[in-house]
Amino acid sequence: MKKKIALVNTPFIEVKDNHPLLPPLGLTYLAAALEQNDHEIKIIDCPASNFSHEKLKEELSSFSPDIVGITSLTPTIDSAFHSARAAKEAAPNAQVILGGPHATFLDKEVLSQEAAIDIVVRGEGEQTIQEIAQGSNSANTLGKITGITFRNESGQILQTPNRAFIKNLDDLPRPAYKYLNLGDYRLFGKLHMPIMASRGCLYQCSFCVSSQMWGGKYRTRTPKSVADELEWLRDEHGADGVQFHDDILTPEVKRITEICDEIIKRKINVPWGCQARVDQISKEVLVKLRKAGCNEVSYGIESGCQKILDAVKKKTSTEQNEKAIKMAKEAGIFVAVTALIGYPGETKENVKETLDLLRRAEPDDIWLCIATPYPGTELRGLLDNMGWKVSDNWSLYDTMHSVFENPLLSGDDLKQIRKDFYNGFYSPGYVLRQTVK
Ligand code: B12
To answer: What is the C-alpha to C-alpha distance for residues 364 and 350, in angstroms, rounded to an integer?
Structure first.
């Protein structure tokens, strides 16, 4: 049966305003899956449209959906609850579904906290939402759909088994951007669009949920399908730049070389950025990336202290961190890094090692993140086991706030360290060097 389905990116204020607001890749993938079954779809991207919850409610009232699907991360979960209540008020008979990493790992909690949410979709959502939309909303039908947690008629919360990961990513229809007003995403007139060439991560860093969310196996699309999508983004949507959303684009030299060669051969000529690991990058790979249009590489260096790199299970060394930054700069690629401070066991001296490394290597941009125990991470389990007090104020889970009591580094210490570091790093000298570049 054809249904009316609204997909909602919940209202929030971007945490970092010099980053372009990108079209929501997850929602456009869900829309593409749903339109295969002829459903009527509307995507409401509240941050892009500058919609409040009140305005969202008005939009939902006039669309009158049968299903409302909401996406959210940990820092936006309270806003997602608010959106769910707005959805029930606007369309009382609609099924309200929540997805994304926070809901995936706190599925039962989310359903017991917010009565306006009917179903949580855990993990990859394309096939699951298709099945929900095709079926009725009886507990009997829902109970047969893998990868969901839901409330039955008597209020009991039931969890079905995990859904198997999608095997062949080339089978997925391309993200359906036609439901968005792409003009909303232009920054200084330029449109940046996302793309994802793989899913899954082979590593299990203690602060990250990726391998659980997307699987510990690296699932890839063919270089041809990636290059086809890049051409499509450029020609059909007018993309001026592209951002790869893969956790890591470069784990296999052969594969990244093939992708780059395909881009070079076809003269795609669109600048792009990606995330890479410092132990998988070489001068040759960086030169190839640059030749294929890569103008920004982002490394999760995490720390300049080997003790902390080992504690977070990063499987890299401080020497690799420094060398990878240097090589990217030499290849003429803008290099951004994320680094972590305030990990359990870290001292002020250990943090200083990280800050010294950053000052020495001088990457072009730095995200100095305060260690944050997102639901589903090993770090969260570690804090629970140690009995350290962890905040449940999810809006603070943006890596700029300290959310657990740390006997070695207090929240105030970490805030001050960040402030002092940024004040020094983005000095008039830095600005001058970047301008000359
Ligand atoms: C690109 C990215 C960003 C971009 C966002 C750009 C944009 N507008 O999309 C930027 C740099 C801005 C960013 C910022 C942040 N990010 Co970020 N980011 C990512 C990254 C690398 C890719 C996101 C993506 O496009 N994924 C691909 C799409 C297809 O997946 P998806 O959106 O999750 O949707 C799928 C499923 O989740 C599910 N699903 C999702 N929603 C729904 C809804 C319904 C109804 C259904 C049925 C299914 C469903 O189905 C979808 C299709 O399979 C992910 C890691 C990852 N691999 O996902 C981290 C990730 C999402 N980010 C994360 C974090 C922590 C942040 C920050 C909070 C902190 C920080 N300093 O980075 C900020 C906060 C942003 C905010 N506004 O609140 C965490 C989230 C953890 C959590 N529990 O919330 C992740 C998972 C990284 C990690 N490994 O821990 N991020």
So the answer is: 22
**Domains defined along the chain, listed by start:** 4-159 (3.40.50.280), 188-436 (3.20.20.70)
Residue to mutate (ligand 1; options 25, 203, 401; most atoms within 8 A of CB): 25
Q: How would residue 139 be classed by pLDDT, with cut points 50, 70 and 90?
A: confident
For the four alpha carbons of 164, 165, 169 and 174, in that order, the dihedral sign comes to: positive
pLDDT digits (tens, 9 = 90+) for 212-251: 999 999 999 999 999 999 999 999 999 999 999 999 999 8
Evaluate whether 126 touches 30 at the Cβ level (below 8 Å). yes
Task: For residue range 16-59, list pLDDT tens digits in order.
Answer: 445 568 999 999 999 999 999 999 999 999 999 999 999 999 99
- First vs last C-alpha separation in the chain: 57
CA of 100 to the centre of ligand 1 (A): 7
Tell me which of 208, 245, 379 to substitute to probe ligand 1's pocket, judged by most ligand atoms within 8 Å of the beta carbon. Answer: 245
CB atoms within 10 A of CB 282: 13
